[in-house]
Structure formats: structure tokens, C-alpha cells
UniProtKB/TrEMBL annotation:
Fe cation binds at residue 132. One of its GO terms (biological process) is regulation of secondary metabolite biosynthetic process. It comes from Allobacillus salarius. Belongs to the Fur family. Binds 1 Mn(2+) or Fe(2+) ion per subunit. Binds 1 zinc ion per subunit. Coiled coil: none annotated. One of its GO terms (molecular function) is transcription cis-regulatory region binding. Zn(2+) binds at residues 100, 103, 140, 143. Its cofactor is Mn(2+); Fe(2+); Zn(2+). It comes from the Bacteria. Keywords: DNA-binding, Iron, Metal-binding, Repressor, Transcription, Transcription regulation, Zinc. This is Transcriptional repressor.
Length: 152
């Protein structure tokens, strides 16, 4: 974790931003909940446990800054809530998501499956792909098992 914090600190300072204690508290919460796809409110409530003086506006501005600097990616799973997701180390593009419509679980696919699609988009539409969002909505393995048990 300290390692990742150091790297994020460098990423910020290369853009002339400081990792202030409040920003650091926000980054720590994101690291501790890396799998969780937290909303700004979720992050705020967790940061508040570490830094009670912090306000929602500060957390919100920090999250916006981190997404501008590509430390986090912002995603919406169709429920109108923006969620914040730490960018995986070394990843050029945003990872993909599998969202279960039954239980709401979110699984990540870290491998970029869109290489061929990006090549088509670039050549056919002369569009330079910088990033993408790919979310599959469906039924997870666990919920499929439950459904087949009920039906048999
Ligand atoms: Zn890609
Ligand atoms: Zn499920
Ligand atoms: Zn994710």
C-alpha cells in the first residue's frame, strides 16, 4: 500500500499537485476498497472515519482531480451514480466490468479484450482511441447456480 501511495504521490507531483493529508486519506480509502466501486458519498463516509474534519466538497474535488490525472477512472453502471475505480498499475485503458442484474455484484476483467475493436475503430473511422468503458450486464455464476437449483 505504501508503495502505491508513493507512486500516486509522484504522479500528482509530476503535475504540480501535492498529496495533502486530505488527498492522502482519500487515496487510502480507495486503495483499501479497491474492489468496491465506491460512489463519492461512500468515499466521503469512509474518509470521515480517518479525517473527521473533511467535507464532502473536498472529497468530491479530490476525486475529480484524481480522475483528471488518471489515477482513478469514473464509471456509471446505469443507476445514475458515478463510481470511482483505481486504475490498475501499468494499465493504459480502463478494465472491463461484469455487472450481475440479480445480485448487483461487479466483477472486473483486467485484460483489455478490445484490441481488435480499437484497431477497427482507428482504421475505419480514423478515430484515435484513448480509452473506453465496457460493462456487460448479465447473471453471475453464483446466481445461475441458485436459479438452476430452484428450477430443478
Ligand atoms: Zn483498450
Ligand atoms: Zn449475481
Ligand atoms: Zn473496476
Amino acid at each position: 500500500m505504501e508503495n502505491r501511495i508513493e507512486k500516486i504521490k509522484k504522479q500528482l507531483s509530476s503535475q504540480s499537485y501535492k498529496l495533502t493529508p486530505q488527498r492522502e486519506a482519500t487515496v487510502r480509502v480507495l486503495l483499501e476498497h479497491e474492489e468496491d466501486h465506491l460512489s463519492a458519498e461512500d468515499v466521503y463516509l469512509l474518509v470521515k472515519e480517518k479525517a473527521p474534519e473533511i467535507g464532502l466538497a473536498t472529497v468530491y474535488r479530490t476525486l475529480e482531480l484524481l480522475s483528471e490525472l488518471k489515477v482513478v477512472d469514473k464509471i456509471n453502471f446505469g443507476d445514475g451514480v458515478s463510481r470511482y475505480d483505481l486504475r490498475k498499475e501499468g494499465a493504459e485503458h480502463f478494465h472491463h466490468h461484469l455487472v450481475c442484474v440479480e445480485c448487483g455484484s461487479v466483477k472486473e476483467i483486467e485484460e483489455d479484450l478490445l484490441g481488435d475493436v480499437e484497431a477497427i475503430v482507428q482504421s475505419r473511422w480514423s478515430f484515435e482511441v484513448k480509452d473506453h468503458r465496457l460493462t456487460f450486464h448479465g447473471v453471475c455464476e453464483q446466481c445461475q447456480t441458485i436459479t438452476s437449483k430452484v428450477n430443478s
